Amino acid sequence: MRRTGPQPAGAQRRSGAPPLSVPSGRGDRRRQLSQNFIRDPKVVATFLAALPKRPQGAAIEIGAGDGALTQALAEHFGSLTAWEIDPDMTQLARSRLPKASGVVIKIGDFLESPIVAHPFHLVGNVPFGITTRIVEWCLAAPALQTATVITQLEYGRKRTGDYGRWSKTTVMSWPEFDWRLAGQISRGSFRPVPAVDACVLSLSRRPEPLVSTADRQRWRRDVETGFIGFGGSLFASLSRHYSRRAMASAFTRAGLAHDTIVAFVHPNAWLTVFDALGQGSSGNYQARSAIRHLEASNRRA
Predict the structure, then answer these.
(1) What is the model's pLDDT at position 271?
(2) Confidence class of residue 298 from pLDDT cuts 50, 70 and 90?
(3) Is 1 a domain residue?
(4) How far apart are CA 3 and CA 33, in angstroms?
(5) Global pTM?
(6) What is the pLDDT of residue 296?
(7) Which residue has the higher pLDDT, 88 or 202?
């Protein structure tokens, strides 16, 4: 969990975000960079199990640190470019790697590097404090295939619906990305020991989006409207754009009560409602397949 930077590659620094400075003291530097290093070999095995089985494309590691994951990642992907902002850690990581490791380690802030244009997989043990910004970067990167990162357990559970609730970020990106909680990690597996447990969070781009390009704008509008919370329920919020008759039919098809709060609506139920309200305008095969699966599950229940 090492500090890597505040924003997507190629973009300007966010307004008001101070430049990253590295203190001279080792302890101060660790606190500034949020450095918590993996000290349990089982964590490496958990992380590797969450990676794509036959990856195509390059791999990029954010925050190589002391190289605890780096060599194993290089062996899994065939080659790896690893970024590390701390020069001391960069030297340590390089010393742990065989000369023919296939790893290129770069000193600097990956999130301030040029935009990656070719298909790639993002991996890393990321700082808890900037996880949201890293995930936002991933969702906005058109060439990203998968992202597998170690982050705070609570963050991973919220984003993957493990609490039975779904965030706007997850629902908004659901047509393009599958979110998965791929393993929990005890905080005692790191040094220094963080205050909370961690997890492996996996993001995978779908082969085909579940919402067509033509319907993408309507999807964004409906999700934004739904999460405003107008009237206290998803039904009330979306009724601002659709007739109550159409809404009633769509909610019946999705198996949703009219008073269902938006946070408790599974993304696949969103797809059902969205498809019904658009009268199937997208014609997207994968979306319809997901909808049929959900509707069959509802009937069995």
Answers:
(1) 96
(2) low
(3) no
(4) 4
(5) 0.82
(6) 60
(7) 202
Residue that finishes a domain, picked among 152, 178, 205 = 205
Same domain as 228, residue 175? no
Average pLDDT over every residue of 251-261:
96
Do residue 243 and residue 272 come from a single domain? yes
* Residue 48 sits in the same domain as residue 197: yes
Task: Find the domain containing 219 and state its range.
Answer: 213-300
Same domain? 67 vs 160: yes
Residues 38 and 89 in one domain: yes
Q: Rounded distance, CA 228 to CA 238, Å? A: 10
